[in-house]
Amino acid sequence: MRPTPHPRLPRTFPLMRLSRSFIPTLKETPAEAQIASHRLMLRAGLVRQVASGIYAWLPAGLRVLDNIATLVREEQAAAGAQEMLMPTLQSADLWRESGRYDAYGPEMLRIRDRHERDLLYAPTNEELITDLARQTIKSYRELPQMLYQIQWKFRDEVRPRFGVMRGREFFMKDGYSFDRDYESAVASYRRMMLSYMRTFQRMGVRAIPMLADTGPIGGELSHEFIVLAPTGESQVFYDSTLEELDYLKSDFSYENHEDLAAFHGLINSYYAATEEKHDEARWEAVPAANRRSGRGIEVGQIFYFGTKYSDKMNFRVAGHDGKTITPEMGSYGIGVSRLVGAIIEASHDEAGIIWPAAVAPFRAAILNLRVGDAGCDRVCEDIYAKFGGAALLDDRDERAGGKFADADLMGHPWQIIVGPRGVAAGTVELKNRATGTREEVSVESALSRVL
RNA sequence: CGGGGCGUAGCUCAGCCUGGUAGAGCACCUGCUUUGGGAGCAGGGGGCCGGAGGUUCGAAUCCUCUCGCCCCGACCA
User: Which residues of chain A fall short of a pLDDT of 50?
Assistant: First the structure.
């Protein structure tokens, strides 16, 4: 049988038979993992730690990473952002221009090549993107521009922890806007914010936008997007209405400035703040039933920073009247690898992960409870072929209990359980991981429910 | 970077105090029995006891140094 591409994945995977797969699940919890998502990622065979804060992504984990990245790409495209790819290793000279080479501190990983030139492993890319923009963009008529990449970054954290959520190497979408003036920059900012809300909603997590500290620039043009997780870096407070808003059904247009302003106003009309910006008086004004508080992990952040980099790096273009103007910039991040951990923190139980369908490595697991039984094998292969790579077939010569436990652990949204009893009756059992519901259904009905 | 802890089989750990040449459970391999929520019996493979140096007739065990990992704090896309 020829490999079939996963319908949603940019990568082509081979068919996934568990008996032939590299998905090393662990019955026991590795000693180094303390929190749920870290434990479950190791146990479900998604990642293996290579060094402190650095992980190898195994086949199932890579699928999740890809699914998240695909959702990000689709929503970035919808908002008009263009994807590109920047190098991880960069010359220190660019960073000396902005002054950040010295300002950044020991979190920046510095490297020296054979010619004794200073390099660094980029933790973010304002310098590089500004350099590319200034080489190319000469007129206000070439603005606005919205560019992004999804690339590995490195921050040499003093103390990496919580697995992939606070690692040193991380996979992140970083985007940058260039605009001719403040008004246009604000529209770019709001456009990204709307795109973020749609992106997170499609992933099956509710990331709450919170006003972040904007430093000397001020205004309401920096937000952090936070998912509740016990291991979060800050205490957060918000109005639960922010969990209910449906941005996918809303018809805010990316092109219409009034729509964008209305959207921004809607978000800011509900209370949401981290510990540092918490305001007791405003909190008291939130209806008691709507108050939500807890630890929160940041999965995205956006900010407008005006001409901070364009000015320092001498990025100028010709304006409408022929005079020189300095483009206004913003930057926009989504922690793709961090989201894998954050989603698990938000969606798991005693038995394992509960994947939201949009990011699950496999839509379903097909459990063959009696490998070698002609009927079971035939039904399983039939179902499996129809999934075209989107399902995982557990064809291992294992006991039923072990298959159930692994399927629960790996968190597939659906389990299609094929046993001799059902096969004789022409049915399979369909289990929903999230609700735990199991029902006897025909093969056709199982397929139509899951596919 | 301050404080604490841990490195022994793929995983979880015992052994270390009181030195005598390496263990358990799970996993893995073979056979038989079993077969719908991590089976049973029998047999088997697998460890430079993180690394280096020292003390000793003898070191997983004692001493020194070193590397790695984890936890608390400060920090944190």
Answer: 1-7
Q: Checking DSSP bridges between strand A16-17 and strand A391-394, what pairing results, if any?
A: parallel
State the amino acid at position A277 in one-letter form: K
Distance CA A38, CA A436 (A): 23
Q: Looking up tokens 């921050």, which residue turns up?
A: A155
* CA–C1' gap, A45 and B22, in angstroms: 31
Q: Report the distance from CA of residue A225 to the C1' of nucleotide B52 in Å, as an integer.
A: 49
Strand A414-418's sheet: what is its strand order? A16-17, A391-394, A364-368, A414-418, A427-432, A438-442
Amino acid at A253: S
CB A28 within 8 A of CB A40: no
Residue ranges with strand state E in A256-313: 272-274, 291-306
Which nucleotides of chain B does any protein CB come within 7 A of? 1-2, 11-13, 25-27, 34-39, 68-77
Q: Which residues contact A284 (CB under 8 A, 6 or more apart)?
A: none
Give Cα separations from A165 to A66, A232, A342 (angstroms).
17, 9, 7
- Evaluate whether A150 touches A10 at the Cβ level (below 8 Å): no
Nearest 5°: phi and psi at A199? Answer: -60, -50
Residues in chain A: 451
Residue-level pLDDT at A339: 96
Token pair of A387, please? 């999934």
Closest nucleotide to A171 by C1' from CA: B77
DSSP secondary structure letter of residue A58? P
